[in-house]
Amino acid sequence: MDKDSAEKRIPELRKIIEYHNRRYYQQDAPEISDVEYDRLMRELQELETLYRDDELATSPTQRVGAVPLSRFASFNHPQAMLSLANAFSSEEILDFDQRIRRLSKMDKMDYVAEPKLDGLAVNLIYENGLFIRGATRGDGTTGEDVTQNLKTISSLPLTMKRMVQYPVPEFIEVRGEVYMERQPFSKLNHRREEEGEEPFANPRNAAAGSLRQLDPKITARRPLNIFLYGIGSVRGISFNRHWEILQALATWGFPVSPLIVQASDIAACISYFEYIGSIRPDLPYEIDGVVLKVNDLVAQEILGNVSRSPRWALACKFPAAQANTVIKDIIVQVGRTGTLTPVAVMEPVNVGGVMVSRATLHNEDEILKKDVRIGDTVVIQRAGDVIPEVVQVILIKRTGREKEFRMPHRCPECGSEIVRLDGEVAHRCVNLSCPAQIKEHIRHFSSRGAMDIEGLGEKVSAQLFDAKLINDPADLYFLAKNQLLKLDRQAEKSVQKLLDAIERSKTPPLDKFIFALGIRHVGERTAKLLAGHFGSMENLMQADVTELTLLNEIGPEIAQSIVEFFAEDKNRKVMEKFRRAGVSPQIKVSSSNAVLHGKSFVFTGTMESMGRNEAKTLVENLGGSIHSSVTSKTSYVVAGSEPGSKLDKARAQGVSVISEEEFLKLVDR
Ligand code: IVH
User: Fold this and answer.
1) Helix axes 458-466, 435-446, angle to 10 degrees
2) What are the pLDDT digits (tens) for 311-359?
3) With contact defined as beta carbons under 8 Å apart, do 345 and 330 qualify?
4) All domains of the chain, ordered by start, with CATH?
5) Catalytic entry in 8, 108, 116, 577
6) 144 - beta bridge partners?
7) Mutate to test the pocket of ligand 1, among 77, 81, 116 (most ligand atoms within 8 A of CB)
């Protein structure tokens, strides 16, 4: 097809596909078969690879399906994904080298040495340079088809770059590791805790959990990254050395770890292992060792596999930061949403340089699975940035005097019955009036990111509740001075200050108010989105699941939780009380809502704090738009690290170029 016809066909195809998306996703009434739909999509994808245009960023090819799948389809890897044999010492590394030189009858053997990323392995299929399908490793033969989710990883190329040195093969399986960096991981965990959700135990679990979301919209919000380190079957190109494969991958535009080196002998490998071990704490992501691979592909072939691992590769593992200690007690904490979390109270012990005395036991199933008892000596481990966890019980230390733990049948705070809902691992206190929950709820309501009521921290919230002056956040607005003066440690001045702060909070920004309500799954970011879209509490309270899920980023689970919150009689009464008290959330038109109204953005290079998808959503939510190429109409070019030619074009056209930091300021991050 020539350029002129393509320019006509591309917008036409986009319109047709968007129409079918609406029929399928929103009206649940598809008109065409999946095969026909895939054909249209493929045609558009192919034309877009040949003729990129300014509207590419908003094309349906760049969008992920709006509706969650009920389960993942299974995927048979064209070539099996093997695992790696492990080594834990230099002796074992030397043995490996001797073994391979003996078996391959080579005096000298050179290697490629790579960091061993701690994430999850994926297999990506590219046909004629187009990303077709991607799957998790699974059992090595069959994995789960997570194509839609992989497409949300901004560093993953949807098309391979065509370069002269390495022709794009007609078929290739590219292998790599999906991972999450430490910093975005802790941010994600904080957000989850704020939203009353279980935090992930470590970045690896977070990466795996995020990639295996049935709703790709959720994956799109997770800060996932990928490094590619190998290939499976390939047609249309051949290689002689593993190093060459890595260079080809990088040339085609795949992210390849810059820490990978060639090592001329095993001594160089051992010093690489030591070097990587020494910089390990400074890396932004977690690694659990290094991988050594025989460089020569003919030698790899000769060596072959033993059971499910290649003889030509070795994972050299770092020792984990672990320690032994004794569990003195297991206590149960009640969170804002009523979740009961068992926590081990231990003899303080140093784990990899940090003193720890508590470790999460997650939930009852976890305790039963590991058979953890009070009095047990256990191995604990710190993984990443989180509270330590109990790895295993040292059974030979059992004396017989250990006590088994049972989840209480009644809430330790309010005595109400504890339930375990179908399909949940957590036990919950479902008493909406549970003091632990209410106190937590009021503290959350007045906290800085929410209503920001000065002087109303954890202690005062609990004091007001215990004195029976308040029972929910709306009661705060009916407090009288003489009631407060009767409380311990409250004098005229502090009481007046508190009342003033409460009074001032009566006109909160709408998003802060929504966040303050403590609706499950609704954190600061979702609250902003809801405020921007609905504009008033009344509108939000009337929205149904369908309307909510039409919003970018809101999946069925969040939508359901919002609808349930406002359907709850008790919550409706509290909302009515807020109204009577004169609490009137404000919508800021000028600054936070449509700050980017009419502004167009082009991104170049890599941003540190977020991926392209996240930036796109952010800009769109604030009224702006994103384009793929720079024109005189572009408002800003945001330059990350290693910006491309768009930067030069922006400068030539006199378009404003801003840094990532300036961009974050602009969007109020
Ligand atoms: S090579 C046959 N290279 O380690 C080769 N694996 O048991 C098999 N991993 O989960 C994999 N970094 O995803 C290879 N540079 C690297 C790696 C790596 C991490 C993971 C891999 C799999 C496990 C292998």
Assistant:
1) 130
2) 999 999 887 678 899 999 999 988 777 889 899 999 998 886 677 899 9
3) yes
4) 3-62 (1.10.287.610), 74-317 (3.30.470.30), 322-427 (2.40.50.140), 435-581 (1.10.150.20), 600-666 (3.40.50.10190)
5) 116
6) 74
7) 116
